[in-house]
Structure formats: structure tokens, C-alpha cells
Specification:
Blueprint: H1 12-20, H2 24-56, H3 62-106, H4 110-114, H5 118-160, H6 162-209, H7 211-216, H8 220-273, H9 278-319, E1 342-349, E2 359-366, E3 370-375, H10 382-389, E4 397-402, E5 405-406, H11 412-417, E6 419-422, H12 433-437, H13 446-455, H14 459-464, H15 482-494, E7 500-504, H16 512-525, E8 530-534, E9 546-551, E10 554-559, H17 561-567, H18 569-583
Helix pairs in contact: 1-9, 2-3, 2-5, 2-9, 3-5, 5-6, 5-9, 6-8, 6-9, 8-9, 17-18
Length: about 575
């Protein structure tokens, strides 16, 4: 099931209130300031009517002018302060959403990541959360303050002249009917536009993540076409949303113009018949002008809510993906901690229900201490053993125990704190060499760093680098060779003082000299730690205490190199082929 297929959740307004709740008092303060701004504006037409009456009766207008000036200044000052408070609160809402979402994505189960596009997930943290800024101020506050101001304005208009109010309401209700048809279309277009942004992010991440392969394959133009098509789809959907939003805004504007003309005509007739005086008509016309702002605010809030609800739905989809429970990091094993014992009991596993089984009843036992190697053809399920030990995945049936306890009984931080893991491609993160080494043990001192650098033969590299350990290694470690990245990954794992060390093809990119040196290092580590090694090159594991031979998701033999050469035909074939190749 992909991220877009997750089940629907609570309505968008409830989700929005959840993000806003921690900032409710700041939001309330901004809303009050907005209402005060609206109240000062509502008083202006009444003061203007009084001023016109003063002029008609040759009375002094100094007081009325001073009151109007004060109201205008107060309106501007309070309005600016309210706008700042609301904008600051909206940014805080975005910050909270980004913190929540980024923390959750870091806890995603690997199965969730496997079924999602990283670029699409990134779009949910960046572009989707950004839309919360507008939906918080324009939609939530705008609908509240705009709605209250609209009601207050209509009440004041009713006090001035009920007949003209009826004329105005008729026009407004007709416009509201049209808006009821337009608003759902804004929602659909906004959702599709945000989905298209996610698709574009996924396409871009896919291309940049393998840019060297794309260039080497001469595929730039084909990938360019994919990116352009995704960008154009995002453009089409965004333009469609903009079209309906513009239609909604212009409908409101047109309604107010029609209302003004109608009020002017009907009001002029009422003045001519003596039903109202000129001052009342002017005051009502000012209210019609003033009515434009809250109506546009309400319409804008509704249209912005449609866009924001699409973004909220996408954020919520990400937050419904299966994730590991939140937990604080566990302390690393103390120096000299006892090595771990591991056992698999009839483990069956597949990566998805529509995929074949990778493990068909895998059973083996690894005693505490010593080196155990896993060998076999590609696809035998060797790397999957390590993924199951780390609980990136859970077996469909069977049991995996560490120190006699089922892995499911361990807290994940405690389990992973006991394990050092060197992945097959030995990933290195962008940043400095020091940051990469300390990734798994940030409190390690300089003496510990120096020891692992010497153990993994990285001390010579550090001495040659311009800034030593503080040298930047580039995106995904591109400034390091493949062998150097592998040694960095091994040093990072050793620095954690693991009770169980998992090495997945950890020396595949090393030259013969460095491989031999690290092989000796691993043998030394195995004297005090349980070491598990996956290797295709048997020269890496011939001295292992035990070798587990896997084939087609099953364990077919366990023994030493000498025992297996004579007892297992598959292992004997692998050994003969590799040693023959080595001899050549």
C-alpha cells in the first residue's frame, strides 16, 4: 500500500486545531487585535454621518475630524500589531508541524520507507507544511475575525437602514450560491497540485540520487523529460486551483460592486422620497465599502482552507505510516561488556505479501564471542539476516533471540545500542569526517577516536586531509574512495563498543593489504565480541569460528572452512572457484 492509499482520517479543521492548540493564546491575542481593528473601522461611517450632519447645520466639525483621525491612526497601529502577532503565530504552527513530521519520519519502519518515495516525503515536510502558514492566519483567524466583523457590519447596516440591508443581503446570498459551486473545485485542484509537487520531488530525488549513473548512461534527456513532465503537471494543477480561486475572489468583488450600485439606486430613491436623509445614505454606502473587506476575508478563508486541507491531508497520510514507538536513546554497552548470543528458530520472512519468501525456516545458533560468517549465492538471504537482527523488519513466523530473549521483548533503543552494523554500501553522510565517526557515539573522546582510526588504518588518511577530522566528506561521502567509506563505517561501528558486530560485505572494496589488516582487526575484535560477517569473498572468512552456508533462503550447512570444503558441495564449489580465480 502506497502513501497515497492510506485510509482517510479526521476532517481537516480538526487536524488544523490540533496544530494550533499549543499556540491558542497567541492566536487569540491576534484575533482580538484584528477585531479591535475592525471595530475602529466600523465607527468611521457613524462619525462620518455626524460630520455631514454638522456641516448641514453649520456646526463645528473639528471634534468629528479629530475623532476620525484618531480612529484611522488607531486602526493602522492595532492592525499592524495584530498582523505581526498572527504571522508570528502562523510561523510557530509551521515550525511545530515540521518538528512533529520530521521526528515521525525518522521513526518510520523500514517497510514504510520501502513503499514511499523519499522526494514525496520531503515535499510533505517542506511545501505542505508551508501552506499551514496561510491556512492558520487566512483561514482559521480570517474566518473567525472576518465572520464576526461581517456580522457586526451587517448589524450596523441594519441599524442605519433595514431596507437597504435587505437589498445588500439579496446580492450577497446570490454570490454565496455561486461560491458554493466553486469551492469544492478549489479543494480538488489544490489536492492534485500538492500531489504533483510530491511526484516532482520524488522524480528529482530519484535522478539526483543516481546522477553519475544517469550521466554515464547518456540518459540526461530522458530524465529531463520526466522532470519536466512532473513540473508541468504541477503547473497545470496549480493553475487550475488558481483559476477557481480567482473566480471565487472576483465573484465576491462583483457582488459588492452590484450591491453598491443597487444600494445607490434604491437609496437615492429613498432620499428623494424623504424616507432617509443624505447622511444616512452616505453612512450606508461607507458600510457597503467596508463590507468588502470582511467578505473577501471570509471568501479568502474558505478558498485558503481548501488548499490547506489538501496539505493537511497529505501531512496526515505521512503521520499514519507505520512507525516505531518513540523512545529515548539507550546507553551504549560499557567497556568490556559480555558479548551477545544469537539464535534463529525456524524463521520465515518475505518483504511484502506480494513477494516470494526470502527465508524458508532459517535456523542457526551463534554462541557468545567469536566470528560467524554467512556465505552463499546472491539472493540466499544473508543480508536479510542482519536486517531482521536490527528489527528493520520482523519475521512472519519463527523466533529470533538475543541472549535468550525474543527480539520483540527488547526495547528497540536497547537492542540497537548493543549492535554495531556496517551496511553493504557503507553509507557516509554529508558533513565532516568527525561527525560521521561520532554518529553512533557522540560522547566518544579523542583517545577512543584515535584508537579506532589506527585500528581501521584511517590515521594515514586523516593526516593527509587538509582539515584532518574536520574535513568535509561531500554528499554521501563522494570525496572519499569506496574503501575509505567502508573503513569509516567500520570505525563508526567499533566506536560504539558493540556486544554484537554485524559486517555486511564490509571489506568488499578494500585492496588486498587493507583487507588483510582489517581481517586481523576483526579477528581481534571477535575475541571479546560476537562478530557476524556476510562475505562473498571466502578469503575474508576462512578463519571464522563457524561458517553458515545459505542457499535459497535456507541454512544448508554449518561448520568450519576445513569441514565444509569436504562436507558441503556448494561451499566446496564456491571455495574452488574463488581460490582458482585467485591462483590465476
Amino acid at each position: 500500500m502506497s502513501i497515497a492509499e492510506t485510509q482517510s482520517g479526521p476532517p481537516a479543521w480538526r487536524l488544523l486545531l490540533g496544530y494550533v492548540r499549543p499556540h491558542r493564546w497567541a492566536l487569540l491575542a491576534g484575533a482580538v487585535l484584528s477585531l479591535v481593528t475592525g471595530a475602529t473601522g466600523l465607527l468611521l461611517p457613524l462619525v462620518a454621518r455626524g460630520l455631514i450632519d454638522d456641516l448641514a447645520h453649520d456646526r463645528a466639525i473639528t471634534g468629528a475630524l479629530l475623532v476620525m483621525s484618531g480612529l484611522v491612526v488607531a486602526n493602522a497601529a492595532v492592525g499592524a500589531l495584530g498582523s505581526y502577532v498572527l504571522r508570528r503565530t502562523a510561523e510557530s504552527v509551521v515550525l511545530g508541524a515540521r518538528r512533529t513530521l520530521s521526528s515521525y519520519l525518522l521513526r518510520l519502519r523500514i517497510t514504510s520507507v520501502d513503499r514511499s518515495e523519499p522526494g514525496d516525503l520531503m515535499a510533505r515536510i517542506t511545501s505542505d507544511t508551508t501552506l499551514l502558514r496561510e491556512v492558520t492566519t487566512d483561514s482559521l483567524v480570517g474566518l473567525g475575525t472576518g465572520g464576526l466583523t461581517l456580522v457586526a457590519t451587517l448589524v450596523m447596516m441594519g441599524l442605519v437602514d433595514p431596507v437597504l440591508l435587505g437589498v445588500t443581503l439579496a446580492v450577497v446570498l446570490a454570490a454565496g450560491t455561486v461560491l458554493g459551486v466553486i469551492v469544492p473545485r478549489i479543494n480538488r485542484a489544490s489536492r492534485q497540485a500538492q500531489n504533483a509537487v510530491g511526484v516532482m520531488g520524488a522524480a528529482l530525488e530519484r535522478t539526483l540520487g543516481a546522477l553519475r549513473t544517469v550521466k554515464a548512461s547518456g540518459a540526461e534527456h530522458r530524465e529531463e523529460r520526466v522532470l519536466h513532465e512532473a513540473a508541468e503537471e504541477s503547473w497545470r494543477q496549480s493553475v487550475r486551483a488558481a483559476k477557481w480561486s480567482a473566480a471565487a475572489g472576483n465573484t465576491a468583488g462583483l457582488a459588492m460592486q452590484i450591491a453598491f450600485i443597487t444600494v445607490l439606486a434604491v437609496g437615492g430613491a429613498r432620499v428623494a422620497t424623504g424616507a432617509i436623509d443624505v447622511g444616512t445614505l452616505v453612512a450606508f454606502l461607507l458600510y457597503v465599502f467596508y463590507l468588502m473587506s470582511p467578505i473577501q476575508q471570509v471568501v479568502g478563508a474558505i478558498t485558503q482552507y481548501q488548499t490547506g486541507s489538501a496539505a493537511l491531508a497529505r501531512i496526515q497520510e505521512a503521520l499514519r505510516l507505520p512507525a516505531e514507538p518513540p523512545a529515548r536513546p539507550a546507553p551504549l554497552p560499557a567497556t568490556g561488556a559480555e558479548p551477545a548470543a544469537l539464535a534463529f528458530h525456524d524463521v520465515r520472512f518475505r518483504y511484502a505479501e506480494d513477494l516470494p519468501y526470502v527465508h524458508h525456516g532459517v535456523t542457526f545458533a551463534v554462541p557468545a564471542q567469536g566470528m560467524t560468517a554467512f556465505v552463499g549465492p546472491s539472493g540466499a538471504g544473508k543480508t536479510t539476516v542482519f536486517s531482521l537482527i536490527e528489527r528493520f523488519y520482523d519475521p512472519e513466523s519463527g523466533e529470533i533471540t538475543l541472549d535468550g530473549r525474543n527480539l520483540t521483548d527488547w526495547e528497540l533503543p536497547q537492542l540497537r545500542a548493543a549492535i554495531g552494523y556496517v551496511e553493504q554500501d557503507a553509507p557516509v553522510l554529508s558533513g565532516s569526517l568527525r561527525e560521521n565517526l561520532l554518529l553512533g557515539h557522540p560522547e566518544a573522546d579523542e583517545a577512543a577516536l584515535a584508537r579506532v582510526l589506527k585500528t581501521t588504518r584511517l590515521d594515514g588518511l586523516v593526516a593527509r586531509l587538509p582539515s584532518g577530522l574536520d574535513t568535509l566528506v561531500g554528499h554521501r561521502g563522494t570525496k572519499l574512495s569506496g574503501g575509505e567509506r567502508q573503513r569509516v563505517a567500520i570505525a563508526r561501528a567499533l566506536l560504539r563498543r558493540p556486544r554484537l558486530l554485524l559486517l555486511d560485505e564490509a571489506t568488499s572494496q578494500l585492496d588486498a593489504v587493507n583487507e588483510a589488516a582489517l581481517r586481523d582487526t576483526i579477528a581481534d575484535v571477535a575475541r571479546t565480541t560476537t562478530v557476524l560477517v556476510v562475505a562473498h569473498r571466502l578469503s575474508t572468512v576462512t578463519m571464522a569460528d563457524r561458517i553458515v552456508v545459505m542457499d535459497a533462503g535456507r541454512v544448508r550447512a554449518v561448520g568450519t572452512h576445513r569441514e565444509l570444503v569436504s562436507a558441503d558441495p556448494l561451499y566446496a564449489e564456491l571455495a574452488a572457484t574463488q581460490f582458482l580465480a585467485g591462483g590465476e
